[in-house]
Amino acid sequence: MGSSDPGNTVFIKRCEDYDRKRIEAIVAEGMAHFNYRPHGRVMVKPNVVFAYNTERFGSTAFTATPLVGASLTALARSSAVKRIDMGENCAVGMPTRLCYQNAGYYDEVARVNQEAGCPVGIFCMDEEPRESVFVGGVVHDNLRISRKMARADTKVYLPKLKCHCVSNMTGAVKLNIGICSDDERAIRHDFMLNEKIVDLLAPGYPDFIVMDAIEVGVGNEAFPSPRQLGLVIMGTNPMAVDIVGARLLGFDLADVPYLQTAVERGYGPSGIDQVILAGDLKSVADLDEQAQRLLPYDDAYTRWQDVGRELERLQSPMRFYWGSYHAGNGRKCLTGCVMGLKMFLGSIERYAGAEAFAVARPVTFVIGRCDETIDARGEDVFLLGSCARADIINARKVTHLDKCFTTAGDMNLAIGHKLGMPAVTRDPVFLRHLIGSTLRASVRKAVSMRYVQDIHHFVTKNLIRRV
User: What fold does the segment set 6-299 form as a domain?
Assistant: First the structure.
């Protein structure tokens, strides 16, 4: 089935557990199928949104460590490879090195180096020098990406197949959000997020993809629940890989906004009928049969994708109002501050439990411009985002987080202590780890001259222009 374009091929192998040797053999088979021969300097990018205390928060927010190690080993066995560097930038406000540590990546890379025929390194994109690359997109004309990525001879992506609270799914295409450091990640992470994601395909188009779909994450992408799918999905076209991933999660291309935007801007394939399936699953019927393993599509499957519904489920006295982002247009921003709120509240539930919401303070959250009058009933009101507006009466205090977009980290810092619920960001053990990792990251940024580079960029590109 599918089109005749071999670039649209997706190679799928069954794999029920995270056995390193089995996965290494699968990756080697995939490389041979696509005749992918890595050479020179190889840049590898996994998916690490959040990793901490996996017993409580789970391990499906990041590419599974055994799959990372197996993929690095398979790549390192190619004689033409001179060096492998693996890099990522995790969720905004979190030091990447802290997530690496909790995901076990440092130990895994050390293990791979014992067997590899070339040096294998791991680095944090938020700590290393960047180079400007031309994008020519709708949101980005240029983008500053990791120097190791900009100078790589070939790129390999290791996405984790997961549901997503605003995009429905995340895979190989959306993995590119992590090539942006926090300053540029915040640019148009709002109602133009899908355009931004498609822009990033220009500097971030991988040559080979190994998608971790052995254990899939459902619900909120930062704190997902695991469901067994038992697949490793490979390809050379991130669109084709993600279209297959979407189908397995129960979505069509039209259900995933960034994929639809990519098709509108000329990327293909434009549908599952144009994908060539190979390996253990050879038809759409095979995909649909395999997807049955992820059922049911219950509340847990879409956890924290609708704030109002979740607050009702948790019987919380907190209220949520959501209006349009611009007066008169009637359109809500689906991908900005509301995503931050979902991740913020989702993290609290995972840390404190559902019972914490029932006894929370009866505060009110407002995103966008609300036409109705809001009676705060003597409680706190939080306006989230630059566009938030409302006629509020009887408020004890109105706090406006005037930022576009307002992240989960911003909410934790500014209002997290006002909700009457415990949170991991105020856990003494977590804070000790966070502060330690932040200090070590700062030292690394000083040594690598990243601070000097950023100051130079600010002076030459921003300050002088404004003067």
Answer: Rossmann fold (3.40.50)
